[in-house]
Design goal:
Blueprint: E1 5-13, E2 16-24, E3 32-38, H1 43-52, E4 64-69, H2 80-89, H3 110-116, E5 120-128, H4 132-135, H5 147-155, E6 161-165, H6 168-171, H7 179-185, E7 188-191, E8 202-206, H8 222-234, E9 241-247, H9 249-255, H10 259-283, E10 286-292, E11 295-296, E12 300-305, E13 310-314, E14 320-321, E15 325-330, E16 339-342, H11 345-354
Parallel strand pairs: 3-9, 3-10, 4-16, 5-6, 5-9, 6-8, 7-8
Antiparallel strand pairs: 1-2, 4-15, 10-15, 11-14, 12-13
The chain binds zinc ion and magnesium ion.
């Protein structure tokens, strides 16, 4: 193998630009990836969250930035299935499909490739675990709403740690199968919260029968806590890990045109990014990538006051929009994410990082 080298990544902390040495090997020798997706998170959502949070976010601890285009194969405005598939599989596909190409052929996802190569994997979301964004990392479906079929696909994937809602698609199925029993047989500890015994190697955490609570309804800190638990469990694999973390309800808040809901979900997601950064900054072999899968609601900032943390947002639509979205990266290989590119580029950048 080629010699490792040392490079400097630029990290912004308050007003001080500091240079942190990061151990990085040549392409193909990276170890861990934490990929954090704010569903529906565009620059408006980020700027507003920054404003209500006193002018800073954990997201900005990633010193490297880029911009991605999110359109799908068949529509200028993507749905979450096609955009997550583009990022997980490297191909533009049609809206409302998961993990398949435009002809219906299954595509291998980055998570499946990670499993095949002996890495550990994790999926963490504030939506149902079978919802489009997480599902695009393990399922192959012509219709993203086939939740029971998607649940069945998760069983054999070997995902080492997952957390989300939607337990009913495993326990109260029209085919009467108990996929909870299937998970236990596969070696999972199945729980309804993050109080894990730690005796099982694999963890399935269902935080809701159906849709998880909003942060404002009392969901608690499960998103950031799950990130911390997952990285500290999966780091024990010498070969590395791939973890996808989704702030799912940023999108739902936008679709409800509810700014208070939106800000609470943004800051919850940002705290999860903070946990990923806390780990990566110490670990030195972990790439953190933060982005949105598309923008939602055409969220514009009409007025605000950064000195008293207030912002007046305006919603253009109840739907997704076609705006390009920002990308933030930190760690070895982060510089690969500089520039302007399609959402399909993530997959190839991840492949290069791992050397698959
Ligand atoms: Zn989405
Ligand atoms: Mg989603």
């Amino acid at each position: 193998m080629l010699l490792g080298l040392l490079f400097f990544s630029c990290t912004k902390s308050g007003d001080n630009i500091k240079l942190d040495p990061v151990n990085v090997n040549d392409a193909g020798q990276g170890k861990n990836i934490i990929f954090l997706i704010g569903d529906g998170m565009g620059l408006g959502q980020i700027t507003a969250a920054r404003t209500v949070n006193g002018g800073d976010l954990n997201i900005f601890r990633c010193g490297i930035t880029g911009i991605q285009s999110t359109h799908s194969a068949d529509k200028y405005v993507t749905d979450s299935g096609a955009s997550a598939t583009a990022m997980s599989c490297g191909q533009k596909t049609n809206n409302y499909t998961l993990g398949i190409d435009i002809n219906g052929n299954p595509l291998e996802t980055i998570l499946e490739l990670a499993e095949k190569n002996g890495l550990s994997t994790g999926l963490i979301t504030t939506s149902e675990i079978v919802h489009a964004t997480p599902a695009a990392f393990y399922a192959h479906q012509t219709n993203r709403y086939q939740y029971e079929d998607i649940a069945l696909e998760l069983i054999g994937k070997g995902v080492d740690f997952f957390m989300g809602g939607g337990k009913k698609y495993f326990s109260q199925r029209t085919d009467s199968l108990s996929l909870i029993d299937s998970l236990v047989l596969k070696g999972y500890e199945v729980t309804d919260n993050l109080n894990l015994s730690g005796t099982s190697k694999m963890s399935a955490v269902f935080i809701a029968e159906d849709i998880p609570l909003k942060y404002l309804e009392g969901r608690g800190e499960v998103l950031s806590e799950a990130v911390w638990i997952a990285v500290n469990r999966l780091k024990n694999n010498e070969k590395g890990f791939f973890i996808m973390v989704e702030g799912a309800q940023i999108d739902w808040a936008g679709e409800e045109n509810d700014q208070a809901y939106l800000m609470a979900e943004m800051l919850d997601f940002d705290r999860a990014v903070g946990k990923a950064m806390d780990f990566a900054e110490v670990d030195g072999n972990t790439l953190v990538v933060v982005t949105g899968d598309h923008e939602t609601a055409g969220f514009a900032l009409l007025d605000g006051d950064i000195t008293n943390n207030t912002v007046q947002g305006g919603f253009m639509t109840w739907l997704h929009t076609g705006m390009m979205v920002p990308v933030f990266a930190y760690g070895p290989g982060a510089e690969e994410f500089i520039g302007v590119y399609e959402n399909t580029a993530f997959y190839y950048k991840f492949l290069k990082f791992y050397g698959f």
